[in-house]
Structure to design on (867 residues):
């Protein structure tokens, strides 16, 4: 079957004890999400997003119709072993520490001890809670608890990740991290289904979206197709002289188009991340989450991790454990410590580099909305005329940026 | 299995870290030694130990029962209410595994606490005589009557059905039936006559005697003592409230069959207070090799009253069959069976009730369970009138109640009675294997139809 998630006239009617007051939370929903797709389920409050997810996961039983995940019902342990779910709020056992929490979920998946330990450390590192891993999660702030919620959803390295309002309660770094993570996972062939009403997040990461209202799909399609303004073009440059600007104006006017020149504003998100990263670099004390923009090692490895890690538990894992741990202590230094590392870490860093925004942003000026123009077919003749020098460079830039997707700096 | 175990250990951590168990642990850790120190009983060392074991075990059992009810209900209802179950049930775990995991967690907690507290009670019990520097006599008495596990034999019930039937016919023919039992059905009259006849078999007029014959008396060691434990009831109180008697113990076949038998024959002249328990210590040599033992009682004429031995516990032969330690372990296991039943009950209640209601529900079951014998008896008594309706509706439900009073550990430990493995197995079978299992099946059925996310408890 070609769909990772499929529903067949899925309907959920909520009624009172007498069977009256019928509310159609979800009404005859036919949803098809292909494998390796990032799908966003949007809609105002009460439009049936969460109800749909809950039916997919077997937390609610459909009144009518059927919901399939990975070609089976989520209640089947074989299926649910391949699903990661992050609910809209982190419902955690307050008395467990962060590490114990993840250990508990790892045990539910029956992960062998070594794999579990390795993944827990990698995940704690990824969500930036390593320093407070022994604190009961009951003492965590909402955002920190969300991070644990994310970590528990990833502990089984799921094929299908279901995220309910993934970014609410998270600081911008956490938000960005989740977005980066989603893109990474999609690159590794995973399917992600997220529901949200934070449109910016969805816009950044989703391949396809569906907008629900009143339990029905009102609009559905590829984000790019839905949002692209085909008749506009945007050009971004470094600092150039007024002469050059005039020339550009002339060229553009020669084409018969309007030209508006503005100095781009930095995005608040980028600015925030830069500021926090600077504070972290100075080792400012914090009792909160130490944000990194790294992605847990086992999640970024391209090889089918399950088979390599789980089958060859004995020797290779212990090496991996060592390989992952050194990367952990200083969150932000990931990029600097590249030279002397094992191949595993190399891979991790390679993959993390384009998104390791903290470092990158510090050194380079942010290019806002760069990718939206990069994605479009460029008029090379105009570009050549404009810059004269940097056309090939630009192309390269576009090529390298592309795989990491549009989350970058967006 | 791994998922069951994960849930079980998590439940254990929950109970310990959420300080639910802590309150009970501290309470018992303070109370038990204090009880051991302060309780004096009737002044003798034996009385003191009996009181301590009785109250200590009862208190431990009661508090652990309450704790079990609370924890088993708390763990699932909070999961549902605080929605931790969302992230648990969406993992590869079946719903029955979640329930069994919760149950197992509570049982683990119970085992741990039971070991702790029973160990403490045992230690205090063993240590007290040494602490009190008891005399050799007291120690000997303790060894024989407390630090032991004695099997008990009650006189076999004599079949009185035919006799009663004849008596009934005789009464009917003589026409005195209406005069004596006006307005009663035949069944009721028969029941009354049966009771009368049974009492008559256990009563002796002045100068009359009673003889009981026992089979299968198997003391572990011929050099030890066996005991006759008895209680008198009288028709007219003697002036000094004492009954003077002659007890003969040995192989009665020597006289009946005129056989040359060499087993010991003992006679005791005694006078004992009425309506309290007494024990006669007898060398085990009186028991014949094939386990036969006869006990004779003579109501001396000077008593001038009819002496009766109340049914059930009026007269018993006790002999050592096992050690105190082994008996104590079985008593603890008996408590554990009770706790397992309650844990299953708590899990069941939490699948369809909110926390406070479930607690109330379980407490009601628990309390009725502790007096279930009384309830069953009273309903059985009434059932003659209620008939078929009762036996097909209420009776099965009442039978489903746990019989805590029937399997009470102190009932065995205080009089140093043997709590045998078969009896323990029977308790386990009824309370855990049948009733507990049924409860879990019900719980599972309810839970698998439950919509997890919809629950607002």
């Amino acid at each position: 079957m070609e769909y990772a998630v499929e529903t067949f006239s899925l309907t959920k009617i909520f009624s009172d004890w007498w069977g009256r007051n019928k509310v159609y939370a979800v009404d005859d929903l036919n949803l098809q999400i292909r494998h390796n797709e990032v799908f966003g389920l949007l809609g105002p409050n009460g439009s049936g997003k969460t109800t749909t997810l809950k039916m997919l996961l077997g937390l609610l039983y459909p009144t009518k119709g059927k919901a399939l995940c990975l070609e089976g019902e989520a209640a089947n342990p074989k299926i649910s072993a391949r699903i990661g779910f992050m609910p809209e709020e982190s419902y955690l056992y307050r008395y467990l520490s962060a590490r114990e929490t993840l250990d508990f979920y790892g045990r539910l998946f029956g992960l062998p001890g070594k794999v579990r330990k390795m993944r827990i450390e990698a995940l704690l590192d990824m969500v930036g809670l390593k320093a407070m891993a022994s604190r009961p999660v009951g003492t965590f702030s909402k955002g920190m608890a969300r991070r644990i919620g994310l970590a528990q959803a990833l502990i089984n390295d799921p094929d299908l990740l279901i995220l309910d309002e993934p970014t609410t309660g998270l600081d911008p770094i956490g938000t960005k991290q989740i977005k980066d993570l989603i893109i990474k996972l999609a690159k590794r062939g995973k399917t992600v289904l997220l529901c949200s009403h934070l449109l910016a997040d969805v816009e950044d990461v989703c391949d396809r979206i569906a907008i629900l209202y009143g339990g029905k799909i009102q609009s559905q399609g590829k984000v790019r197709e839905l949002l692209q303004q085909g008749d506009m073009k945007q050009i971004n440059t470094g600092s150039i002289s007024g002469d050059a600007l005039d020339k550009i104006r002339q060229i553009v006017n020669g084409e018969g188009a309007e030209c508006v020149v503005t100095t781009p504003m930095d995005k608040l998100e980028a600015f925030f991340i830069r500021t926090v990263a600077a504070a972290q670099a100075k080792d400012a004390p914090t009792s909160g989450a130490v944000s990194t923009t790294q992605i847990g090692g086992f999640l970024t490895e391209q090889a089918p991790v399950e088979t390599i890690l789980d089958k060859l538990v004995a020797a290779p894992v212990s090496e991996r454990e060592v390989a992952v741990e050194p990367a952990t202590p200083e969150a932000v230094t990931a990029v600097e410590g590249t030279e002397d590392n094992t191949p595993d870490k190399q891979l991790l860093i390679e993959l993390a580099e384009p998104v390791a925004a903290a470092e990158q942003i510090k050194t380079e000026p942010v290019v806002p909305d760069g990718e939206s123009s990069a994605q479009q077919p460029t008029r090379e003749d105009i570009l050549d005329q404009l810059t004269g020098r940097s056309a090939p460079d630009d192309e390269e830039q576009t090529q390298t940026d592309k795989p990491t997707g549009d989350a970058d700096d967006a | 299995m791994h998922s069951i175990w994960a849930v079980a250990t998590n439940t254990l951590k929950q109970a310990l870290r959420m300080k639910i168990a802590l309150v009970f642990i501290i309470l018992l850790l303070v109370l038990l030694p204090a009880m051991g120190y302060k309780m004096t009983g009737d002044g003798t060392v034996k009385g003191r130990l009996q009181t301590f074991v009785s109250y200590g075990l009862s208190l431990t059992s009661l508090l652990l029962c309450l704790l079990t009810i609370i924890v088993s209900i708390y763990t699932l209802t909070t999961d549902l209410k605080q929605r931790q179950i969302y992230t648990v049930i969406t993992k590869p775990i079946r719903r029955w595994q979640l329930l069994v995991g919760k149950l197992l967690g509570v049982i683990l907690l119970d085992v741990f606490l039971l070991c702790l507290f029973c160990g403490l009670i045992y230690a205090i019990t063993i240590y007290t005589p040494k602490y009190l520097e008891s005399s050799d006599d007291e120690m000997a008495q303790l060894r024989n009557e407390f630090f032991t596990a004695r099997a008990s034999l009650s006189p076999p019930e004599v079949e009185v059905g035919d006799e009663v039937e004849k008596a009934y016919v005789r009464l009917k023919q003589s026409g005195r039936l209406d005069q004596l039992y006006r307005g009663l059905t035949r069944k009721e009259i028969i029941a009354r006559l049966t009771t009368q006849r049974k009492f008559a078999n256990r009563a002796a007029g002045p100068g009359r005697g009673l003889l009981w014959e026992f089979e299968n008396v198997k003391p572990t060691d011929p050099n030890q003592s066996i005991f006759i434990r008895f209680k008198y009831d009288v028709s007219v109180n003697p002036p000094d409230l004492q009954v003077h008697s002659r007890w003969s113990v040995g192989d009665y076949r020597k006289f009946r069959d005129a056989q040359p038998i060499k087993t010991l024959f003992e006679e005791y002249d005694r006078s004992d207070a009425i309506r309290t328990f007494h024990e006669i210590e007898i060398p085990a040599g009186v028991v014949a090799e094939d386990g036969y033992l006869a006990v004779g009682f003579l109501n001396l004429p000077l008593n001038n009253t009819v002496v009766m031995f109340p049914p059930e516990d009026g007269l018993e032969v006790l002999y050592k069959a096992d050690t105190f330690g082994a008996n104590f372990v079985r008593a603890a296991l008996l408590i554990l069976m009770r706790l397992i039943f309650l844990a299953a009950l708590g899990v069941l209640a939490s699948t369809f009730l909110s926390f406070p209601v479930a607690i109330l529900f379980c407490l009601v079951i628990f309390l009725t369970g502790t007096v279930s014998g009384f309830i069953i008896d009273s309903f059985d008594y009434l059932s003659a009138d209620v008939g078929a309706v009762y036996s097909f509706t209420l009776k099965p439900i009442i039978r489903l109640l746990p019989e805590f009073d029937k399997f009470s550990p102190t009932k065995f430990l205080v009089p140093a009675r043997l709590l045998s493995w078969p009896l323990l197995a029977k308790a386990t079978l009824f309370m855990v294997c049948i009733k507990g299992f049924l409860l879990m099946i019900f719980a599972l059925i309810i839970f698998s139809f439950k919509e997890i996310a919809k629950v607002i408890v």
